[in-house]
Design a protein that fits this description.
Blueprint (H helix, E strand, L loop, with lengths): L3 H7 L13 H11 L11 E6 L2 H11 L13 E7 L7 H7 L5 H18 L3 E5 L4 H8 L6 E9 L14 H4 L5
Helix pairs in contact: 2-5, 3-6
Protein name: Nitroreductase family protein
InterPro entries: Nitroreductase (IPR029479), Nitroreductase-like (IPR000415)
Organism: Cloacibacillus evryensis
Length: about 180
């Protein structure tokens, strides 16, 4: 088992997968990890659609390619659709002062990060996809009109497990110390 820093360092976007199905239990374990993420007022404003079925998987892959990107999704063994619920349940005072949507995007983002890190821990590769029609994805899976599809995560076993170097800003460029 890796420590957290090693796990974060080894996570990378994978766009080339082995032709090998992912066990449903591993996918559920990734969703379970996502469900442990923090959320405002413990609202847990997320849902996850795990897609392994051939027809639905093919249709979803096509939806990620609508602007000519992501041809590689055709080879993804599975997808997890990350959905933000329309009306998270928050404390009334919070809703009164800040509304219901202020925190949800960040909460769903944290849940997605937990999902990715668990997938990495299980030896799976993932790539977050953001190019799709929200309405078409919701229609494909019968999701409520008020919900928002925040991400589609392609999941599978990486064809190449060699870690790539990360290109990140230096911590001094992104940190302000106040004290």
């Amino acid at each position: 088992m890796k420590n957290f820093y090693e796990l974060a360092q080894s996570r990378q976007s994978c766009r080339s997968f082995k032709d090998k199905a992912v066990d449903g239990e591993l996918l559920v374990r990734c969703v379970k990890a996502a469900s442990l993420a923090p959320s405002a007022c413990n609202s847990q404003p997320w849902k996850f659609v795990v897609v392994t079925n051939g027809d639905k998987k093919r249709e979803l892959s096509k939806l990620t390619q609508e602007i000519g990107l992501n041809k590689w999704t055709e080879s993804a063994p599975a997808f997890i659709v990350v959905v933000e619920e329309a009306e998270p349940i928050l404390m009334p005072r919070v809703v009164e002062h800040y509304g219901t949507k202020r925190f949800s995007e960040g909460d769903v983002g944290m849940a997605t990060a937990f999902l990715l890190l668990e997938a990495t821990e299980q030896g799976l590769g993932c790539c977050i996809i953001g190019t799709y029609s929200d309405a078409e994805v919701k229609a494909l899976f019968g999701l409520p009109a008020g919900d928002t599809v925040r991400a589609i995560v392609a999941v599978g076993y990486p064809a190449d497990e060699t870690p790539r170097p990360k290109s990140r800003k230096d911590v001094s460029e992104i940190t302000t110390l106040v004290g």
